[in-house]
Amino acid sequence: xxxxxxxxxxxxxxxxxxxxxxxxxxxxxxxxxxxxxxxxxxxxxxxxxxxxxxxxxxxxxxxxxxxxxxxxxxxxxxxxxxxxxxxxxxxxxxxxxxxxxxxxxxxxxxxxxxxxxxxxxxx
Length: 123
Prior knowledge:
By secondary structure, the chain is α/β, with parallel strands linked by helices. It contains two helices and eight strands, in the order βαββββαβββ.
C-alpha cells in the first residue's frame, strides 16, 4: 500500500487569519477550527487540505516549499489582482521578468506563485 497526501501543514503566527486568507484565495471552506489547528479544504471529503498550526516566531527566510496555483478562467493577471486585494503582496525573489508565473506572499510572508493557465502537470 502507498501513502497518500492528506494535509499540507503551514506554520503560522495567526492560524485563524491565515486560514481565512487561504480559504478565500482557493474558494475553500474552513472545515475545522480548534485552538491549535485550523483545517481548510474544498470539502470535508476532499483528499487533500491545508492545516494551519501555531508557531511563535515569524518567517525569516525564503520558503523551502511553496504552492503553485493555476489561475481561473479570467487569467493570471486577474487572479493576481484578486489575491493582492485579499491581503497578499508581490515579492521579488530573483525573477528576471520573463517568467510564466507571478510570485506573491501571503499575509505572513509565505511565497507562492500564480502560474500561466495550465491544464496538465507537465510544463
